[in-house]
Amino acid sequence: MKSQYVLPITIVVAGVLIAGAVFLVGKNNAPASSTTTPVSDKITARAYDPSVDHILGNPNAAVKVVEYADLECPFCKVFQTTMHQIMDYYGTSGNVAWVYRPFPLAQLHSKAPEEAEAAECAADQGGDAEFYKYIDQIYAITPSENGLDLSELPTIAQQQGLNVTTFNQCLNSGKYATKIQNSYNEAIKEGGQGTPFILIMVGNEAVTLQGAQPYDSMRAAIDAVLAGIPGITASSTPAAQ
């Protein structure tokens, strides 16, 4: 997709994002969990890859909202609800999909990498649907800020009807540790300064947003991108609510 289709969002986002605090650097220069912030940038990033990524919505959607997240981040927990609202609104059109990538900030939340691996092990058995269901359940029970009892991880798997023995074997093997670390490294390379780190993408072009953006800000940003894509008209996007 040519860059002119995405560029207008940079201007729009600057006018619609709600300003807020962002805590960028903690101990050991680690990125930190963040609230809303008006900072945005335009980058080239890795496009959606079905062999690596988990997606909710149409895999062929013109716009993909990529979220790099930490399962112990309280702002990610809030943004999880926002993204489900976004998908409730746009999902039926098939024009927008949600891609979730792990970005565990182990320096702040030592349990987050194992939780991210657990979600991958759930996907091992049930694909993307079980992956999103699993992270929903983690967010539902964790008090955040490294507060989840890790003994709950197989319990969640059992509640979802997964084979717990297979799940535990997967988790104990560290099968997905490298994938989680690679995703973390990727987020840093792409400019992630905290969680959630958001990319609104067309192909491999993206506008980045730092922090848990509110629903209205996400709607404005996504609408700006959709408006710049030839062939997507008002009649093919959800009606105003």
Describe it for me?
The chain has 241 residues and is an alpha/beta fold. It is built from seven helices and eight strands. It has one domain: Glutaredoxin. Strand 4, helix 2 and strand 5 form a beta-alpha-beta unit. Helix 3 packs across helix 4. The radius of gyration is 17 Å and the shape is globular.
Quick overview of this protein structure:
Helices cover about 40% and strands about 15% of the residues. With about 240 residues, the chain is α/β, with parallel strands linked by helices.
Helix and strand layout, with pairings?
Elements: H1 8-16, E1 32-33, E2 40-44, E3 54-56, E4 63-69, H2 74-90, E5 96-102, H3 112-141, H4 152-159, H5 164-173, H6 177-189, E6 194-195, E7 197-202, E8 205-210, H7 215-227
Helix pairs in contact: 1-7, 3-4, 3-5
**Overall body shape:** globular
Rg computed from alpha carbons, rounded to a whole number of angstroms: 17 Å
* The number of domains: 1
The residue-averaged pLDDT reads: 86
By helix and strand content, what is the structural category?
alpha/beta
Q: Under CATH, the topology is which? A: Glutaredoxin
**Could you tell me the number of beta strands?**
8
**What's the arrangement of strands in the largest beta sheet?**
2-8-7-4-5-3
Task: Characterize the main sheet.
Answer: 6 strands, mixed
Helix content: 40-55%
Individual helix count: 7
CATH superfamily: Glutaredoxin
| Secondary-structure element string | HEEEEHEHHHHEEEH
The CATH class turns out to be Alpha Beta
Q: What percentage of the residues does DSSP assign to strands (E)?
A: 15-25%
CATH architecture: 3-Layer(aba) Sandwich
